[in-house]
Amino acid sequence: MRFLATLTAVLITTVLLAQKGFISGTVTEKDNADAPALGAIIRVDSTSFGAPADFDGKYKISVPPGTYNVSCKYTGYAPVVIKGVVVTSGKTTVVDFPLERAALLIGDSSGIVIYGVKPTSSQATINEDIHNGNQAADGQGQSEIKKTVATDAGQVARRIPGVTLVDNRFIIVRGLSERYNSVLLNNVLAPSVESDVKAFSFNMVPASMIDRFMVYKSPSPDMPGEFAGGVVRITTTDIPNQNSLVIGYATGFRNGTTFDPFSLNKGESSDFIGLGASSRALPSTFPSNVRNLTTAQEIQDAGRSLKNNWGYETFNAPLDHRFNATYSLRVSKPKYQFGNITSVNYSSTYQNLTSQRSDYNMYDSVLGMSDTVFNYFDNVNTHSVRVALVQNNAFRFGKAGQHRINIKNLMNQMGDNETSLRDGVNIEEGNYRREYSYRYTQRFVYTGQLMGEHSFNKERTRVDWTIGYSAARRSDPDWRRARYTLSFGSAPDDPYMLYIPNSAQPFYIGRLYMEMQEDIVAATFNAEQDITLGADSATKKTGYTFTLKAGGYYENKERSFGVRNIGYRAASIATYGNTALMALPIEQVFMEENINSANGLAIDEDTKKADQYYAAKVW
After folding, report:
1. Going by DSSP bridges, is the β-strand pair 21-29/92-94 parallel, antiparallel, or unpaired?
2. Residue 504: CB atoms within 10 Å
């Protein structure tokens, strides 16, 4: 009985399939049959039947016999409807769709201009470009980015296969660190605000202003050759779809930080806009090198001229805050289009991290263990402020809008106020540790481009060029560090004692001032020509089309970097007997009365020639 039911079901299914027919075909560009329309949607009108085109532009739909109208829609192209398609049971009817670019008609006079409106930020367009290209690539467009909660380019990058985000700022492509990857921002190499490595901070670009985010993992003649991992190309938006003013505010709860105790060195009034570096800089009267001072009075005056800002306060961390406002303007006239996008982004966030750092000696095979050298526990609290401004203008003109001029500007200002509190033991040195680190980092990036895109000969000839300037600034003013120790075996009520060296050693007790700046002037030129061989208009043979590319890149990069290592030392031998000084809490140690030549602290310097450099590159 079960066999009979199964056989009946198979027969019914076979009969139903035999009663259906198929519609299949290929969707391509009308002027280029070798360009499949990946993701085009084909529907059988007045029914629920339909299918998308695959990577080769092919599709297949199963429908009951009959006569139908079949439509095809694809982003950026004019919809096509083919009427009276006859479907016969058990047979396949071939329906191909050659698509033409969609057009927007502007004006009603003799000066009418028709503009193609194929978007660049849709995921379908990006998938099509990846499929038609000759590189291993992945990417996301603005349409997909808006569906996520990404707030900056770093969070967009982590969604790309083969890309790993490190420290919320840097990326690893195919397992290779940031120094082996290149970043193009609007077709120009992006500047770096890191002092010791070539790396772009991806958290400096707001996600809302990204039009396309592409990662290329294989070489190409039109890409920079100085990479081993990949090339990241970020393109910001230009002509908006409509006039608009969008204002947004968001607040966020961070698990492990928000409403929990948060310890932070007291900031400056300008920290709220990320400009706290100038108020932490060395006084203008501070000597160019402390070791050039000859008298005890000069050394004392120099030491007392520095702020006693070594304390910290503990409070409950507030919610994160983010604000953005974007104004979009689109002007369409009979002979041109103009677009403007101006966006301001502001964020204030808090983050608390805890970490354990341990070190061990070589494994002892006899004892079956490794001796511990030290074991530290760090509590790192960071308040970050970011202000970003994007101002892009685009002007489009010419027959069918084949000429486009863009002016793009991106400015980002960031300030991080970080307080690190360390507790632990150093077994090798036989003491307990308590260390303090107060660091403020200010980073600034500006990048601007004047860009042009031109097409001729029915878009078979294409030219683009870019002239750009980028500036990067980084300042780490007054990075303060101090160490307290307590020897093993001390009495329970013995205090931790300040470690005071006999010469400047800023790593133990001192202040570091670091400045870095980078300027880049760059220009690019690219030309493409489509060449078709074997085409025959009489037989409608499309032939074979290949693209010839040529281009050039010019860059002048200058970078300077400098550090001042200011430390504290014992002013005299009597300082080591001043246990009252060494037992003072961190916020009292550097008061003016403790900076003296008798039995207190003295300012010193350990700056070397190797602590600064200047570099330039032209290519």
Report:
1. parallel
2. 21
Half-sphere exposure of 2 (CA within 13 A, CB side): 0
| pLDDT higher than 60, residue 584 | yes
DSSP string covering 148-199: S---BHHHHHTTSTTEEEETTTEEEETTB-GGGEEEEETTEEPP---SSS--
Q: What does residue 85 show for φ and ψ, rounded to 5 degrees?
A: -80, 120
Structure tokens at 493: 């009520």
Largest CA distance in the chain: 112
pLDDT at residue 17 tops 60: no
Residue 242 one-letter amino acid: Q
SS3 336: strand
Give yes or no for a contact between 524 and 450, defined as CB atoms under 8 angstroms apart.
Answer: no
Structure tokens at 251: 């607040």
> Taking the model in full, what pTM does it have?
0.76
Which H or E run includes 202?
Answer: none
Residue with tokens 């974007």: 326
Buried b (16+ CB within 10 A) or exposed e, 355-366: eeeeeeeeeeee
Residue 293 phi/psi, 5° resolution?
A: -75, 140
Q: What is the mean pLDDT of residues 441-453?
A: 93
Domains of the chain are 2-102 (2.60.40.1120), 134-236 (2.170.130.10), 261-551+560-618 (no CATH)
What is the 3 state secondary structure string of 126-160?
A: HHHHHHHCCCCEEEEEHHHHCCCCCCEHHHHHCCC
- How confident is residue 537, by pLDDT bands cut at 50, 70 and 90? low
